[in-house]
Amino acid sequence: MKILERFFVILLLLFPRVITAQMNDFQAVVDLALAKAPNYAAQIRHIQFDAEIAEKGRFDRFPYFGKQRLQKLEGIKIGQWYGKQTNSHVYLGAMNQLIHEIQQVHGSQIKYPKPTLFFWVDFYQDFVGSQCVSPLNFHARSYYEFTFKQTFLLQGQAVYQFTISPKMKTDHLFSGILTLSQEGMFVGFEGTVESDAINYLVNIQNQYKYEIWLPLRAHFYAKGGVMGITGEYELEELVKGEIQFWQPKVQDFEKPHTVKEVLNIADRAFDETFVSQLLTNLHGGLIRKWKERPQSALVSIDSVKYTHANRLAIRKDFFPVSLDSSIVANYDTLRRVPFRIDQLVFSRSFFFGQKKRDFFPFEIYFRSPVFDSNYNTVEGFVANTGLVFRKRWARYHMLETEVLGRRSFGLNSNTGYIKLRYRTENLDISAMQGDFVAQYNPENSIAPEMNSLATLLLKNNQMKIYSRRFWNVSILKRFSSRVFFKALVESAFRSQMDNTTNYQWINYLDRDFGSNNPTNSEYVTEGFASHKAFITQFSVGFRPFLTQSYLNSTRQSDWGSSPLFLVKYRAGWPTLFASKVDFHMLELSYVQNLALSPWAKSGFILNAGTFFGHAPQHFLDYKHFNGTLNLIQTGEMLASHRLVGYYQNFTNGANQRLNVNHYAFSTSGNFVEALSQFQFSNLWLKPLLGTKKAYVKELLITNAVYLPKQNLFYQELGYGLDGVFKVLRLEAIANFSNGRFNYLGFRVNLNSRIRIGNIPE
After folding, report:
1. Distance from CA of residue 10 to its chain's centroid?
2. Residue whose C-alpha is closest to residue 98's, from 129, 121, 125, 127
3. Burial of 159 from C-beta contacts in 10 A (0-12 / 13-18 / 19+)
4. Which long-range contacts (CB under 8 A, 24 or more apart) does 380-386 make?
5. Consecutive H or E run containing 2
6. Tell me: the pLDDT tens digits for 271-314?
């Protein structure tokens, strides 16, 4: 009996060690998966299979003012599901190199559906999806807690399930059940992740074949929204039938010999954005990181072919019955409607000729004076009106002639210009001649409409203009995504303009309007003598490290993968065309946007330049610095200083600071400028405000400029919240001169998050 008792005592003492040993064995599976994830990805090669991809989406909230337009112009109805089903045969060379033979694309309430391409879903990368941290990230144990759940047999193979939970309360981290094989291969996942106010439910199931785990099913469900638009999106990939090996030919995944690129990014950005395109954007954001696979050292290639296969039935279990079968998503930027006289109230286009796939051969664009009117203290009230005649050979291949007239009611004068322009996707050439006003800093001009408000309401005439009788020729040539070239040649007769009116709506602080001829510590004489100028400007842009992928013969670029280097040379040439202007300026710029982590983004602009030979004699030709000059700002805020000549907050010390001179730092000497912005998901204030679930980002702003000729080192330090109420950005900025604190400024702007990518030209 004593021997038996001793046996049980020894067993009880050893039992915790046995459990601990087993738990360590289970955790060893995780360690093996983390260590070998890149190797496992490299093992999956040369297979083929049938795939079915179904996706759908709907909007459940949209700003009221846009609902009627949404349904009338795009066929989008709130609550209506829109989707498509793509059946294809997929040949896989590597996990980021695929050939898609499209068998059918079936639209559900979409008139012209495009195929959805299969993408390989696994966690064999450090970051997946919309910059989310993979549970198989090499440093995953720094982000996740792995708790063993159970082990069981799947297709005759031992698999291990772990509950994964984030070690920190933030987005871009997965929560759920991760399944691994005994060798540490990815078997499946079921759980959730939040990325930029979008909540994703993820279910991935793999199958065992050829002694590796290959895809079987992947299902994504997303819900959320931004800017007042909310909805849901669902995508499901199914691998159907048998997975088989195939032997690719060498040329199947070679880079295309003849490559096309979409280079006119800026032109396309000005095209109208449609709500129905948000579905495409959701899909693109979802697959972006899954497609990259930088560790493979292979260029991402997708080849798309179309085959004539028997039409397959659309999945009725996935696509619900439509609310209104007459509502079909179809957007058209070139709609032709019968002419009515009231159409001339707004600027609009009128199209002529037989419509092609996405363009009409002829267009007349009318620029209405009703909404192109403004006020300034030189010309009084002014109105612009014009006509643009376009002949198109393709959507972005056209010849256009623009005639614009400007009426100054204060000066009782008419001016204008005529412009001839030829442009394609990689070339833009224009020639202009006219008599028209120009701003002192044309590269960062002040919006005339916002200047009108500040002038009439605050007696703050920030926009400074001069008269210019001119002709010029400009060219923009995009050689590739990596290299572009710009040039401008201009001859002009330039004359100063003076204030002619002190009209205002509000006599704000009984103040006087500022002069229309700016000065600063370097240029103390107001105005200038009329003179002729012949000026040239040449710029070259280069992105040396751009990461690119290929879809058929089209090369696609990850714009954030490389910094942009700019070299600009601007000069005034005396005696040419009777010019009296003589100066030379060289400027170098470095532009870089970086995702420092899934929770931190950054953007940098560094400019350095000098005048050599002769410094400019006229203030017009000085180097001017970009300030944010409007009461309300939209778009990217990285490229300008915050407190250099902007219309400041009405309620906080406005009477001391409304006269900030936008040209105070303009220089004819050496200069160094640095602009930076950092964006954080969680930093300091956001957790304290309880806004962790709201799409609010924190900003840190640091700007500086050094001007040796003025013995000035100017700095700005700021903090902001981006995405307040989903539409606003709030900022508080302190500025310093030579280390001395000046004041604290506040501003309210429309929401604009840092764009990761450099596409300025």
Report:
1. 66
2. 121
3. buried
4. 380/408, 380/409, 380/410, 380/411, 380/500, 380/501, 380/503, 381/409, 381/410, 382/406, 382/407, 382/408, 382/409, 382/410, 383/407, 383/409, 386/416
5. helix 2-43
6. 655 566 666 666 676 677 677 776 667 888 899 999 877 778 88
